[in-house]
Protein: Aminopeptidase NAALADL1
Organism: Canis lupus familiaris
Amino acid sequence: MKWVNVLGGIVGAAALLGLGIILGHFAIPKGSDVPTPSIFQDLDLEILESIMQQLDASRIRENLRELSREPHLASSPQDEALVQLLLQRWRDPESGLDSAEASTYEVLLSFPSREQPNRVAVVSPTGNVLFSCRQSEQNLTGEQGGPDVVPPYAAYAPPGTPQGLLVYANQGTEEDFMKLQAQGIKLEGTIALTRYGGTGRGAKAVNAAKHGVAGVLVYTDPADINDGQSSTNETFPNSWRLPPSGVERGSYYEYFGDPLTPYLPANPSSFRLDPDNVSGFPPIPTQPIGFEDAKILLCQVNVSVYNRLELRNSSNVLGIIRGAVEPDRYVLYGNHRDSWVHGAVDPSSGTAVLLELSRVLGTLLKKGTWRPRRSIVFASWGAEEFGLIGSTEFTEEFFSKLQERAVAYINVDISVFANATLRAQGTPPVQSVIFAASKQIPAPSLGGLSIYDNWIRYFNRSSPVYGLVPSLGSLGAGSDYAPFIHFLGISSMDIAYTYDRSKTSARIYPTYHTAFDTFGYVDKFVDPGFSSHQAVARTAGSVLLRLSDSLFLPLNVSDYGETLRSFLQAAQQNLGVLLEQHSISLVPLVTAVEKFEGAAGALDQRISALQKATPDPLQVRMLNDQLMLLERTFLNPRAFPEERYYSHVLWAPRTGSVATFPGLANACSRAMNTSLGSPAWAEVQRQLSILVVALEGAAATLRPVADF
């Protein structure tokens, strides 16, 4: 029975309209002058344009100056001062939000010893020190020598004082160490010198330890970050390039979240692991150094690491704007707050944008001229640099509520790497809303060219559906979106401005995680005038408003079809023959992809028909829930038992060389050289079944809800 149609009568519509008004009434704080909301409230383009015009580049610049004035390592007094700054801004009587609170977790962090600084030295056979590496970066601008500047170190690397012959191990990948062994080089008891890139920080130590290496040094090679430039007159403060003494700090923990409370929020009552039994820490002492020291090291090297683990309090700050019609649907917008030193680019460029966007929205809210349809949650995460800790603890604590109610997560961490073009990453359904927003905003200093038109000049792909479009990157685990997409299955995105890849081969902006990432660096080299910061604020703000205010959620699930079809074709072309040899058929996967494409196309047609009519509010709600919940259908917590938090069968880490479904690619890679009927080939079959079930479940979620 098509029971939905029964609700289309006058009485039903009136009752639902009344329900919407009641929900909106209780969502609005007493004393608000916001007009009574309509259950059909939709995106107001005039208000959107007004918000775009009010986002002020000079205010973003002043935000950044204040945020990056002092080093603010996670849990430090300066970090806590920024917690209070955010609370003050979000509680402001003229531009604040409905509510703002800080929540604190007790988490395990890692710090170098002040009493015994970490040290790297070249020593003679008799132990005499012949050369010592810098223990701090050169104080070039007066900002690198303060007492709150943490010395370079590898967070979570164990203490120890290994000594041995130095071996250059390139990027420290498993292949790099195997090549050294194949050349007859004895690795047992050596110190491996590696450069950043190629594999994760912690993986370098893990790979080294497998081959008996006693300690690891990591440096940033000027070829990877400075386009080969390394002299003092070619680097900061004379250009944006990394100076010779610059050292990249970072977390070497393999997973994310608090190491002692995996899958549990780090509250006082939570069970904690014994620190001595925690997995994911580097197995051997590890220390980062600058490239000026890396080129001098040779022969016998002594590495002295005195890092220590400490339980510290770290806070998240949440600012809430309650929705007028659907207060139980949340659009989240976040960035982390903590930095390794001053952190002007990472992360304060993102927080400067966040504060300006929340100021403009808060001002409209306090004036009573606007309230979103859905609730907006602004978040400032703590201790991200140590392994996405604040955001992960939040997703653990509010797992059920977020899975039931979160529409999408917008991440703006580093808002401006450089000032050439937009760069966006996300799951396929968010592509359309980012495109729509970027088409309406002028690109900085380009004479009327839109951000979208400028973006397509730098990063583009050929879509079988849309033709030439900007490329939307996929999400790994590099920022706070990771727990939202991989653990909770919430449609997520990361938005930033970046550089022209044709003009630099830098893997990231050169002063990343160093003491040279300062306000002056941004103001002079990265974004003079802050027009790119403003462009990111407008783009992310427009996406936020479209997700929070649109009657129909602007998530295009059909765009997942392109990804699935691309993955399927890669599997057929690169793995099909191999799978046939082991009597494994891809036909069920082909059928599942076709079912998804059909269901997504049919849903698009239903939405289009409703948009042209006067929709029943309940029908709108049901369709929006289908759009919101699609991403959750791709989760399988048992798909990757060797991985922590990774449950998304489409976006889990892929170690296999074929650009297809990660579980299938990884399983085939491991099974490649095993015998017929081996457990490895059984795992291939299991991964294929997991995929088929996930895609069929996704298709079922998109079909009319009455057609069970």
In short: The radius of gyration is 26 Å. The longest helix spans residues 587-612. The chain is about 40% helix and 15% strand. The CA atoms of residues 395 and 483 lie 7 Å apart.
